[in-house]
Specification:
Layout lengths: L2 E2 L13 E10 L2 E11 L4 E5 L6 H9 L6 E6 L2 E3 L4 H6 L2 E4 L11 H7 L10 H14 L15 H14 L4 E5 L7 H16 L4 E5 L3 H7 L2 E6 L2 E7 L5 H9 L18 E11 L5 E11 L3 E5 L6 H8 L7 E6 L2 E2 L4 H7 L1 E4 L3 H4 L7 H5 L10 E2 L2 E2 L1 H14 L16 H13 L6 E5 L7 H16 L3 E5 L3 H7 L2 E6 L2 E7 L5 H8 L3
Parallel strand pairs: 1-6, 4-9, 4-10, 7-8, 8-9, 14-21, 14-22, 17-20, 20-21
Antiparallel strand pairs: 2-3, 2-5, 5-6, 10-11, 12-13, 12-15, 15-16, 18-19, 22-23
Helix pairs in contact: 14-15
Length: about 525
């Protein structure tokens, strides 16, 4: 295919067509994108859907030049383009609004806008720039005061500025990555409504990554759905129901593969959550009155589209977030998830993103494996650490859980994702006495061998009588491992069933918010 290298004339009103053709991107053994194609028609609002790990971020990062795909092309204006950096993308009129703000807090709105340009001069005539910026703001879909420092802006204003920045750079194709995650519903409707007006007027094309079906049905023309790195479907929003889109994201129902489970006749409640409420980091409601019980020798699975409160619920139960109200009990007693309570109640956790939430990246594998036990014999004597005991324990766990590491002294951040997960699992499951295991997306981004190993360890713990709360966005995983399934939607539980009686259609409707 001929590669065009001349930038588009992006001063023109109409946005160009954007097409991704047969794109593949691999990271080691993990295939993040597998022969994916997508078409963003000029002047349309297109939603990119899929669970975490489906390949959405990898796809847009290939379009923006953060990654070089192993195979496939990005066509802009029907010509294949070489995009090696976001600056290249900007030259072709493609801009991206990221999930996290990129403006410099100490600078003003005007300074951030001017410095975002590729051609920003070394010596800036601020009077001239302010005149141009004022003229730009007069025609923009929303306004933010030019003289205000970013640190003084509310979250909604900061998100508006990120979008304004791309319009100021004359982007004709706008990629939005979860743009409303920090906005209230009213703010989200305002921002997306104004962008929609620009699309309807033929001035913009928009590709939005979102988990909120309400935004898709309200603002998008078409959708493309990815599942586990592969193309799962596309279509016009007016022709698809929310359930149709949810089923594309989850895939067709597969019969759960049988796992060997022991029957427990004298199960007792281990974890009880009563009327839990919690808020997001932005202050918006995340968990709205959730109650559940997990018994000994039982795996309770929580299913849901990402962003529906499961992250905050797990953080409350793991002691990483304080609930605004409600009560957690373990073994019948109030539980605040302090280190002492975790030890006395034998509570262990396998959180999402373990390198960020369960490890100290610069510390060694052995030190991370000892985070639960370093202050108790045989790894400690009074205030003294017994380094040989810490290393010997790590050696045993590395062999037992097949952790691939050059040595126990290797920084854990040097390990692959699967081996970080194995190392954390070794630490959390190596105790002889476990009452409760809380696992959140334990197999996210891992290869088949690592997935099978972790599944086996979770079921083995359950068979020993451990109560397991398994939160996952992989419905196949939940159908395979769970004894009981609960669906979370909008921060509330919307469906519950024993796994043998679970209704796939009802699960789909509940996950879609029906």
């Amino acid at each position: 295919m001929t590669i065009a290298t001349t930038p588009l004339a992006i001063e023109t009103e109409a946005p160009p067509e954007l097409e991704v053709v047969n794109m593949t991107k691999q990271f080691g053994k993990l295939v993040a994108l597998d022969n994916v194609s997508m078409l963003l028609k000029p002047g349309t609002f297109h939603a990119l859907l899929g669970e975490n790990g489906a390949g959405k971020s990898t796809l847009v990062k290939c379009i923006m030049g953060f990654y070089r795909p192993d195979q496939g092309d990005v066509l802009i204006g029907k010509s294949a383009r070489t995009i090696d950096s976001p600056r290249d993308a900007q030259r072709y009129g493609v801009g991206m609004v990221y999930q996290h703000f990129t403006s410099v807090p100490a600078m003003t709105v005007a300074e951030n806008l001017v410095l975002s340009r590729i051609d920003s001069p070394a010596l800036i005539n601020w009077k001239d720039e302010y005149d141009k910026l004022s003229a730009f703001m007069a025609t923009a879909p929303f306004r933010v005061p030019l003289e205000l420092p970013i640190s003084q802006l509310a979250a909604g204003q900061k998100q508006k500025l990120e979008i304004l920045k791309q319009l100021y750079l004359k982007s004709k194709i706008l990629i939005l990555d979860e743009p409303t995650s920090v906005l209230t519903p009213d703010e989200a409707d305002e921002v997306l409504g104004l962008i929609r007006q620009q699309v309807t007027a033929g001035k913009l094309s928009v590709l939005i990554i979102t988990h909120k079906f309400r935004e898709v049905t309200s603002f998008a023309d078409e959708v493309t759905v990815l599942r586990k790195g592969k193309f799962a479907g596309t279509g016009s929003v007016k022709d698809l129901s929310v359930s149709d889109m949810a089923e594309m994201m989850m895939g067709e129902r597969k019969e759960p593969q049988p796992v060997s489970k022991v029957t427990h006749l004298n199960a007792v409640p281990v974890l009880e959550a009563r009327d839990i409420h919690a808020i997001k980091d932005s202050g918006l409601p995340a968990v709205n009155g959730l109650s559940l019980t997990v018994h000994s020798g039982e795996i309770v699975g929580i299913a849901g589209i990402s962003g529906n409160g499961q992250k905050e619920l797990v953080e409350v139960l793991a002691g990483q977030r304080s609930p605004t109200s409600g009560e957690v009990l373990v073994n019948g007693k109030p539980y605040k998830a302090t280190r002492a309570e975790m030890y006395s109640n034998k509570v262990f956790a396998l959180p999402e993103e373990p390198l960020r939430n369960a490890c100290v990246p610069h510390m060694s594998v052995a030190e991370n494996m000892a985070l639960r036990t370093f202050d108790r014999p045989p790894q400690a004597k009074g205030f003294m650490l017994i380094l040989n005991a810490i290393r010997n324990t790590a050696d045993t766990l590395i062999k037992q859980f097949s952790v691939k590491t050059p040595s126990p002294e290797t920084p854990i951040s040097n390990l692959s994702g699967g081996n970080v997960q194995r190392a954390v699992l070794a630490r959390e499951l190596s105790s002889e006495h476990i009452n409760l295991l809380i696992a959140a997306n334990p197999c996210f981004g891992l290869d088949f061998a690592a997935v099978e190993f972790i599944h086996g360890q979770i079921v083995e713990a359950r068979n020993r009588g451990v109560a397991v709360l398994l939160v996952s966005e992989d419905l196949d995983e939940l159908l395979k491992l769970s004894d009981r399934l609960i669906v979370i939607s909008g921060g509330k539980f919307s469906y519950e069933s024993e796994i043998a009686k679970a209704d796939f259609s009802a699960i789909s409707h509940s996950m879609a918010g029906h």
